[in-house]
Amino acid sequence: MKRARPLLGTYVEIEVAGLAEPALARAIDAAFGAIARVHRLMSFHDGESDVSRLNRYAASEPVIVDGWTAKVLEKARILFDASGGLFDCAVGHELMRSGRLPSQGLGHVESGSFAAVELLSDNRVRFSAPIAIDLGGIAKGFAVDRAIVTLRAHGVREALVNAGGDMRAMGKTARTIHIRCPGLDGRAVQAGLLRNAAIATSEAAATVMKQRARLPAPGSHHAYSVVAPTCLLADALTKVLVQTQDAHAGYFARFGAIAFVTSADIAEVRVA
Amino acid sequence: MKASQWIWLPAAVISTAAHATTYFSVEQVQRAIFPGASFSATSLPNAWRASSGGYVIVDRVVGKHEYITLAVGIHPNGTVKQIEIMDYKESYGYEVREAPWRAQFVGKSASSPLQLNGDITNISGATLSSRHVTDGVKRILQVYETSLKGKR
Question: Whose CA is closest to A75, among A114, A122, A116?
């Protein structure tokens, strides 16, 4: 059974097998529910989300967030530290300045880094500087992971959850993965077989670069992919790969991940 | 946790023009949104009234490179009950499917699925925006307000 809904600003598809139809339908509904919950908690656009409340108030006082939000922030902190600051969710200022995110009520926000995020006890969070965070580089992967966990709790053992190209497979089935690459309109590159793992892909144009990063050439036709045990890791690590262009960096292996760059000229496909 | 598995395949460029998936027929999506209800026709060929109250409206959304049919279930009080994508098809201009789309519903039972052939799936790439679907849902709610609300 395969279903799709518009969530997280993209199309989320869930494919499941191995149980009777009513059980699969119930499992899919619950999994979409988990994704919708991540969306509600972590949307920059929704003024009532945890992310919006953090951005408005956490520089003045500790804000209590949902346990899921706290978990994502904790992972974001680990990735920030492991990547030497290249994975940085404190990009709200940059995204608002370039008009990619709304800035209502956030006039106090300045440029900064995730180092200002303090994770306190009992899911309380404080910012030590007037930053704004955007979890767009990690929440989608987390949502896919929550959907997989939810499906498993409903007895599903064979599933694929695909949130607009960030996906995670569960079960014995090996799935052929194609990479969509800028400059290859209407075509995709066959890359590999995925089983019990996640993959995410980013483009340079969609990634906020921290200043120290080595920028890819403008208009470069590359797709940056990471295969990892969880979709949160795959999603987040693509943002690092885009900036460093270095698929061999040590942190990929440390997280159990494989990084690779696909070029529009497939003769240049590089593998790690 | 089992180790993650990734097996390299020879890089090959494949057209995604036939990337299409059908998730629901009209009848299936009606049952999924209002389980146990029966459905009657309305003044619109692409809208049905549920015996339990509420409506299912089907519409088509054209994005930059994608064609999507979606169904919106509307509660009797006019709020959205559920949004389901019925089919998804990519097109990069090789074919334009702009036949009079709504005509397929006229005089038909709601049981005929919209036939599209699936081909490759599992494409990882920069995220596709679903903004067109969001706009499509707004449009559907306007249709509900002007043509269906308060009628039996």
Answer: A114
Residue A61 lies in a domain: yes
Query: Tens of pLDDT along B127-143?
Result: 677 878 888 888 898 89
For chain B, domain boundaries: 21-117+128-148
Q: Which of A133, A150, A183 is the last residue of a domain?
A: A133
- Residue A115 has φ and ψ, to the nearest 5°, of -60, -20
Q: Tell me how many degrees the CA angle A5-A10-A13 measures, rounded to the nearest 5.
A: 40
Same domain, residue pair A190 and A269: yes
Please answer yes or no on whether B127 and A180 come within 8 Å at the CB atom: no
The domain of A250 spans 174-272
How many CB atoms sit inside 10 A of residue B53's CB? 12
What local confidence, expressed as pLDDT, does residue A210 receive?
64
Higher pLDDT, B70 or A104: B70
**Averaged pLDDT score across all residues of chain B:** 77
- For residue B15, pLDDT beyond 90: no
Instruction: Assess whether pLDDT exceeds 90 at residue B2.
Output: no
Domain count, chain A: 2
Residues A114 and A205 in one domain: no
* Cα A121 from Cα A10, distance rounded (Å): 33
ipTM of the complex as predicted:
0.83
The answer on pLDDT for B101 being more than 50 is no
CB A164 within 8 A of CB B131: no
From A3, which residue of chain B is nearest by alpha-carbon distance? B23
Nearest to B124 among A3, A179, A184 (CB): A179
Q: In this structure, is residue A11 part of a structural domain?
A: no
Residue A232 lies in a domain: yes
Has residue A14 been placed in a domain? no
B117: burial class by Cβ within 10 Å (0-12, 13-18, 19+)?
A: exposed
Residue B119 has pLDDT above 80, yes or no: no
Name the B residues in 7-66 with CB < 8 Å from any A CB.
7-17, 21, 23-24, 32, 65
